[in-house]
Amino acid sequence: MIHWRKSIDGDVEDEIAAHLAMVRDELIAGGMSEADATREAQRRFGDIHRAKADMVALDQSRERREWWAELAQDVRYSLRLMRRSPVFTVVAVLTLALGVGASGAIFSIVRQMLIAPLEFHDASQLVRVWPSDPHRDVASGPISVPDLDDWRTGQQAFAGLAGFWYEAGQISVALTGDGPPESLDPAYVTPTFFQTLGVDAKLGRVPRVSEMQEGGERVVVLNDGLWRRRFGADPGIVGRAIQLNGKPHVVVGVMPPTMRFPGTTHAPDVWLSALYQSQDETPWKLRVVRWLGVVGRLRPGVRLDQARTALTVVQQRLATEYPDADHGWDGVTVRPLLSSIVGDVRPALLVMLGAVGFVLLIAVINVAGLLLARASGRTREFAIRSALGGERPRLARQVLTESLVLALFGAAAGLLVARITLHGFVVLAASELPRVPVERLDWSVVALALTIAIICGLLFSAIPAIRSTRLIGTRQVTVGAEGQRLRHAFVIAQVAIAVVLVCGAGLMVKSLGLLISTDPGFRPDHALAVRFSIPSYRYGDTTGPRYANAVFDRVRAVPGVVAVGSTKVLPLDGGEESWSFDVAGEPPPPKNERPVVPTFHISADYFRTMDIPVIAGREFTNRDTLGAPDVAVVNEAFVRKYIPGGIDAVPGRQLRIGGGGVTIVGVARDTRQFGLDAAPRPSLYIANAQNMRGTVTMVVRTRGDPAAITAAVREAIWAVDKDQAIGEVTTLDRVVERAVTRPRLLAILLNLFGGLGLLLGALGIYGVVAYTVRQRQAEIGIRIALGADARRVLTMVMARGVLLTGIGMTLGLAAALLAARGMRAVLFEVTPTDPLTYATVLALLAIVALIATYIPARTAARADPVAVLRAE
Amino acid sequence: MLRGTDLDLVQGTLDILVLKALVWGPRHGYAVARWIGERTDEELRVEDGALYTALHRIEKRGWVRGQWGRSENNRAAKYYALTAAGRKQLAARISLWRRYAAAVSRVLEAV
Fold first, then answer.
1. Is the dihedral angle over the CA atoms A45, A47, A52, A58 positive or is it negative?
2. Does the beta-carbon distance from A65 to B30 stay under 8 Å?
3. Per-residue pLDDT at B5
4. pLDDT score at A477
5. A799 vs A459: CA distance, rounded Å
6. pLDDT for residue A392
7. Average pLDDT in the B35-59 region?
8. Domain boundaries, chain A
9. Do A61 and B60 touch (CB under 8 A)?
């Protein structure tokens, strides 16, 4: 094809030259002088240039047409061939489809999550920024409103810096009116938030900076889900006021479903101005109150390190100027927004990508093996066709077309498999993905599938093409040793890859098992968790706890309820408040280097309800109220770290928190508050009645099925206050379950891939042994006829399969040890070299390989020698 | 002498002459030109360029197939052979030409 023009050109030129020479020769023979003859020949020819151009054009269009005709012929032939051996075709296409489909789906997800730009204007300019306190080992802390203002005005590197406060499930606003009261997930954002992000509303508009100030008419932006669920996707919602925490807020816009920020796996229900944050809930304007996260937009051309340097200068000035609030906070951490959003799913996605890569590889090798076997069977066909005048390039092209057609079928079926896989994956994983997944296969996946198909086609055709042309070239008719070697190499590779895949799955299963069997430190069964918010606009510091107690009492009276308690943040649920303290009686730490610990506001009876043992002292009671001495409970980790003398030294100890002293009245057993895979941290429990927090998760310990009394609990709450908005109601079992969703998902997928690898590997071994048996049928028949023991025959035939499996497993083990290093980030308490897992996997594979070897070998050993020899 | 530069004359007629020239076996272009010249007693002179263009045109249509070979005096030359389709085409054109010529003659000879 490439030499087309050149060869046609030369051809035509040669033809004309030959003609002119013949004419001239004849004229000279007739007595003309050579010069006259040359001239006369040219004259008779007419316009040589035009004739040549016409001929070349005609030849080109002819060759083009012939090329397509031959292609059509080759394709027809390939299709006929595929129809003629349906089992081969189905196995090959299905194998390719599984490989292409699995990798296509996962590739699509990985691309959408890790690579595709965020759905914001010029998203590559967006970064997350945090102040850091290297002295207390805080790499990314929150910031206060005044500090953020100084950041914004103190440098030139950022086109915008905006703050937000969002803790999924931990803060809420009550939506009343328009139906039953509902507890919403809000994101509080500073006025320039939407402009900094560069995001537009899908309906209405984003609020203007002036609308987000204090004192004016309040505005709100809704998320797409809330707008559909609660307002029936009414486009007329824009401009209407809705009641949030008892105050009217005008809806200015509805966000598109892709806008989740600052949420990741879920979007906030509403975006509100951080400046509406009422004084009584948080002293939000103080420099010492750090509560905002920061998103920034770099000016064009500014690099990450330049931005960090610019902000560090500002932050270090603040640390000197405001030692009370900023001492020690003299660093800044900057990270691209995309990586901060997808960072924690990245390792799992990459592990999956690696796994499907291996699945694809094993599938391709499998099909190559199949084609190799078939090519050996087609030696006769090629020899005949070559004898009948088939040109070698033409035969090679035929083989290439066959392979490409097969590979394209595989790719097409693979796209279908990819679609289904993608759908399944999204259904399974939707709640765990940090960005909204698109269930459509984009062009890049189609391109990927096509590329794989073409590469496979080339690879596959190279094998039989090389073999067949070599055979034809040397007129060799016996099966070459190189085919045998290639086939063995394929089996070894298949076994090795299967080992890698199954080891990966095995490690993940073991890790998941350990994670699930981890004692969370509380009893998750028979308990209901009910989230609600005690609205500060209706209840104050004294009336709030009284109201909460009234609710608890009412719920306690529900039949089947054993105990009731509450906490601001459930274990495994994320979120915490950080309090600084020092231990009275110990030398005070340097100013502003007081330790900070996660602090939880709980009710009386919380530990009893959760079944968290209090190992010393007591838990809070209804007598620990405002006005009574301030009390605290600490966990074991706290005692280990901060109380010299340990648990015996606890009674009577006081902590200095804020201005006053707080007495430690009890020590609770450690819980897995921060995740099943996270070690317990020193923590502080504070009586909610003494330090009111509106956010409450009420835990209800039940005798029977907790879900069965959900309605009764709701009614009990509404019996106290019919306007109480109730948030999520779930069981503690569900909360624990949620904590292992991601590793479970990964384990399921790796097991699927591992199973696929095992199946394909077993098919590979089976194929080779069966083929060898077929090849050696005569020999085996003779051996049996000569009285060889069936067991000897069996051993002889199996020996090769066992040898290949052994080599494959050895190589696979080495590869698995290397590949498993990449899994470190997703494994819990399992080292990537866990010997037991590897031993189990190798044993499993050995058994599968033995079965795959035994079946064809047994057929051989049982063969009737007479029948076998007669068939030859 | 009729000159074959007039394309109206050549288009249909030249193809049929070329096909006819190949009935007895493959010939190269020069041989085709000579054959036509001899048969028409040089009455119908076709420019060689036009002849070659015609050869390539009918090769494109699949009526002849060209292949390089050796000429009588051992010169490399491209030989054209009639294909089955070419043979059929020739037969069809000959009958068409005869009817056409007869019709034209009848008109011209009418009183």
1. negative
2. no
3. 46
4. 42
5. 30
6. 64
7. 86
8. 4-77, 134-329, 346-517+741-871, 536-724
9. yes
Residues 6 or more apart in contact with residue A118 via CB below 8 angstroms: A126, A337, A338, A341, A435
The residue behind tokens 């910031």 is A143
Instruction: Tell me the CA distances in angstroms from A335 to A125, A162, A187, A322, A761, one per residue in order.
Output: 11, 15, 21, 26, 43
**For A637, left (φ over 0), alpha (ψ -120 to 50), or beta?**
alpha
Q: Which two tokens stand for residue A263?
A: 């949420």
pLDDT above 80 (res A806): yes
| Percent of chain A residues topping a pLDDT of 90 | 40
- Number of Cβ pairs closer than 8 Å across A and B? 67
Comparing A276-285, A417-426, A660-669, the range with the smallest average pLDDT is A276-285
Does residue A19 sit at the B interface (CB-CB below 8 Å)? yes
Q: For A126-136, what is the mean pLDDT?
A: 90
B56 contacts on A by Cβ (under 8 Å)? 12, 54-55, 58-59, 62
- What is the distance between the alpha carbons of residues A168 and A268, in angstroms, rounded to a whole number? 7
Q: What is the reported pLDDT for A279?
A: 44
Q: In the 3-class helix/strand/coil scheme, how is A318-385 assigned residue by residue?
A: HHHHCHHHHCCCCEEEEEEHHHHHHCCCHHHHHHHHHHHHHHHHHHHHHHHHHHHHHHHHCHHHHHHH
The partner residue sitting opposite B47, judged by closest CB among A18, A45, A59, is A45
Indicate yes or no: CB of B52 within 8 angstroms of CB of A44: no
ipTM for the predicted complex comes to 0.86
Q: What is the pLDDT of residue A206?
A: 93
Tokens of A747: 């384990």
Residues 6+ apart with CB under 8 A from A426: A109, A433, A437, A439
Residue numbers in A near B47 (CB within 8 A): 44-46
Report CA A738 to chain centroid distance, whole Å.
Answer: 16
Residue A23 at interface with chain B, using a CB cutoff of 8 Å: yes
pLDDT at A440: 80
Amino acid in position A181: P
> Which residues in chain B have Cβ-Cβ distances shorter than 8 Å to A55?
52-53, 56
With contact defined as beta carbons under 8 Å apart, do A14 and A52 qualify? no
Alpha-carbon span A3 to A726, nearest angstrom: 76
CB within 8 Å: B76 and A46:
no
Question: What's A655's DSSP letter?
Answer: E
**Band of residue A614 on the pLDDT scale cut at 50, 70, 90:** very high
Residue A799: count of CB within 10 angstroms of its CB = 12
The CB density around residue A346, as the number of other CB atoms within 10 Å, is: 15
Query: Which residues share a beta bridge with A441?
Result: none
Which chain B residues touch A44 with a CB distance below 8 Å?
A: 47-48
The strand order across the sheet containing B64-70 reads: B27-28, B76-82, B64-70
Q: Would you place residue A377 in the very low, low, confident or very high pLDDT band (cuts 50, 70, 90)? A: low
Give the DSSP H/E element, type plus range, for residue A541: none
Domains assigned to chain B: 2-106 (1.10.10.10)
